[in-house]
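Researcher: I'd like a candidate sequence for this fold, 236 residues long. If you have to choose between options at a position, lean toward the conservative one.
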């Protein structure tokens, strides 16, 4: 697995929608743009192909490569209620955004943007989280307020593109097929071929994982979120 768990200080922000007194973590950020991101990602791939030590970065050495961290992603797994109990929702990412090959991923993946700021100009990761839910699933404020659980979990380093991410969960007591799937979302057709709700049962989930290809860090997030629900995902 390419992701490195505990890359940064782990934080547990359970139910941060309802209770902002929970512990958090401070992240130092710098301004960049998409062009710079593309350039540094290209340089990273070239260095990696040449066997540079950056490819082996870990929790002790990753800060040596700060200029390469031009992207920060929120990776969320949606949990809903279905006809057979709790369901997890996976997305099948379009080949246009998955390196030319359609693969399964967690429900929502959104990059932090300079627009994700509160009225005081302070970067707010929850705004990125909410924007991702709206743009990829159509979940607006009225449904967002119905969450029974929302949490950020683990920071990790995605080493295919050398990007920092954080895993997250969003849980609703709504039926995905009836209440969420029909919603209109700006990026739904562009980035996702389909959404797949799976019963939250170990045997069903593990069979699906064995039989399908996943975005590597998407599988990592899937594993880490479900582990907190007492379900262990066995990769291929």
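Model: Candidate sequence:
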């Amino acid at each position: 697995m390419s992701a490195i768990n505990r890359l940064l200080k782990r934080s547990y922000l359970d139910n941060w929608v309802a209770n902002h007194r929970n512990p958090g973590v401070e992240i130092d950020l710098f301004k960049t743009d998409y062009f710079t991101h593309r350039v540094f990602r290209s340089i990273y791939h070239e260095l990696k192909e040449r066997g540079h030590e950056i490819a082996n970065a870990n929790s002790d050495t990753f800060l040596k490569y700060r200029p390469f961290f031009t992207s920060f992603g929120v990776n969320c797994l949606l949990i809903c209620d279905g006809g057979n109990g709790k369901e997890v929702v996976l997305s099948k990412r379009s080949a246009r955004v998955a390196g030319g090959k359609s693969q399964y991923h967690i429900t929502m993946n959104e990059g932090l943007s300079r627009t994700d700021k509160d009225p005081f100009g302070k970067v707010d990761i929850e705004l990125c989280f909410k924007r991702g839910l709206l743009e990829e699933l159509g979940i607006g404020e009225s449904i967002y307020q119905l969450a029974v659980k929302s949490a950020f979990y683990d920071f990790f380093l995605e080493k295919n593109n050398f990007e920092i991410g954080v895993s997250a969960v969003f849980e609703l007591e709504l039926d995905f097929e009836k209440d969420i799937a029909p919603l209109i979302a700006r990026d739904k057709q562009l980035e996702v071929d389909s959404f797949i709700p799976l019963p939250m049962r170990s045997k069903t989930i593990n069979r699906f994982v064995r039989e399908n290809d996943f975005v590597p860090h998407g599988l990592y997030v899937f594993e880490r979120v479900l582990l907190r629900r007492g379900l262990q995902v066995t990769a291929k």
